[in-house]
Amino acid sequence: MHTVWKGAISFGLVHVPVKMFSATEDKDISMKYIHKACGTPLSYVRTCQHCEQAVEWEQISRGYEYEPGRFVLFEKEELDALSEASKEIKILDFVDLKEIDPIYFQKTYYLAPGETGSNAYSLLLEAMRQSGKIGIAKVSIRSKSSMAAIRVIEDCIAMETIFYPDEIRSITQVPNLPENPAVNDKELTMAKMLIEQLSTPFEPGKYKDDYRDKVMNMIQQKVAGEEIRVAPEAPKTNVIDLMAALQASLEAAKPSSVPTEAAEPAAAPKPKGRKKAKETVS
């Protein structure tokens, strides 16, 4: 894996040299914009609307628009000078993981011990594992200051960047939320039963990106020159009868009660048995 950052974790007066690696990777299928007329890929060109010409990176500054059309300009070196100690993950507090709402989490990184920090790394890892606590820290990565959660994943210390509280939008901004929701008791009971039937231990390996698989399959078909036909999905109607929808969902979610032996071929039933079953259905 590629090292994205080098520095140290600090808690109290203890420093733990670490290297940082991205824990996740983007597997989205990358596609380019193509000119339909000639099939040529289109390039992203930075142009100045005033000068009507392309602009190279060395000619670009950063600017903050404090009024419409008026900017204050910054050079990269000025912003870098403002960043905090960029080589330190400073743990401020230790808390319980369950106290942090998932809305705060951004991106996960793995932290490996530096060349001289193996003992301190192991000490911090084991102390956090046995205490059940995670660290809340501040870190600067690529001129951006972030909060972070330092925790243990198996035998590795991981860091998850998290949003600052003022970066989380208030729920009061969400439109059309019910003020005094009224819930039917029977529907609520059935909904909880459905949740219970669909509850299972989390097994990430059983989930996959179906859309990505379909796109890759379509790419392979196009490369092979095959004709592609995508069957349209049946339109979904709005659920009007909640009770009926819940009942149908419960029936569909019920585990099969048919024993395994029943899956084996059985002897043909007697004619009398078939006649009797027909009469019972009618």
UniProtKB/TrEMBL annotation:
<comment type="subunit">
    <text>Homodimer. Interacts with LigD.</text>
</comment>
<feature type="compositionally biased region" description="Basic residues">
    <location>
        <begin position="271"/>
        <end position="282"/>
    </location>
</feature>
<dbReference type="GO" id="GO:0003690">
    <property type="term" value="F:double-stranded DNA binding"/>
</dbReference>
<keyword id="KW-0233">DNA recombination</keyword>
<feature type="compositionally biased region" description="Low complexity">
    <location>
        <begin position="261"/>
        <end position="270"/>
    </location>
</feature>
<protein>
    <recommendedName>
        <fullName>Non-homologous end joining protein Ku</fullName>
    </recommendedName>
</protein>
<keyword id="KW-0234">DNA repair</keyword>
<dbReference type="GO" id="GO:0006310">
    <property type="term" value="P:DNA recombination"/>
</dbReference>
<dbReference type="InterPro" id="IPR006164">
    <property type="entry name" value="DNA_bd_Ku70/Ku80"/>
</dbReference>
<feature type="domain" description="Ku">
    <location>
        <begin position="52"/>
        <end position="179"/>
    </location>
</feature>
<dbReference type="InterPro" id="IPR016194">
    <property type="entry name" value="SPOC-like_C_dom_sf"/>
</dbReference>
<dbReference type="GO" id="GO:0006303">
    <property type="term" value="P:double-strand break repair via nonhomologous end joining"/>
</dbReference>
<dbReference type="InterPro" id="IPR009187">
    <property type="entry name" value="Prok_Ku"/>
</dbReference>
<dbReference type="Pfam" id="PF02735">
    <property type="entry name" value="Ku"/>
</dbReference>
<keyword id="KW-0238">DNA-binding</keyword>
<feature type="region of interest" description="Disordered">
    <location>
        <begin position="251"/>
        <end position="282"/>
    </location>
</feature>
<comment type="function">
    <text>With LigD forms a non-homologous end joining (NHEJ) DNA repair enzyme, which repairs dsDNA breaks with reduced fidelity. Binds linear dsDNA with 5'- and 3'- overhangs but not closed circular dsDNA nor ssDNA. Recruits and stimulates the ligase activity of LigD.</text>
</comment>
<keyword id="KW-0227">DNA damage</keyword>
<comment type="similarity">
    <text>Belongs to the prokaryotic Ku family.</text>
</comment>
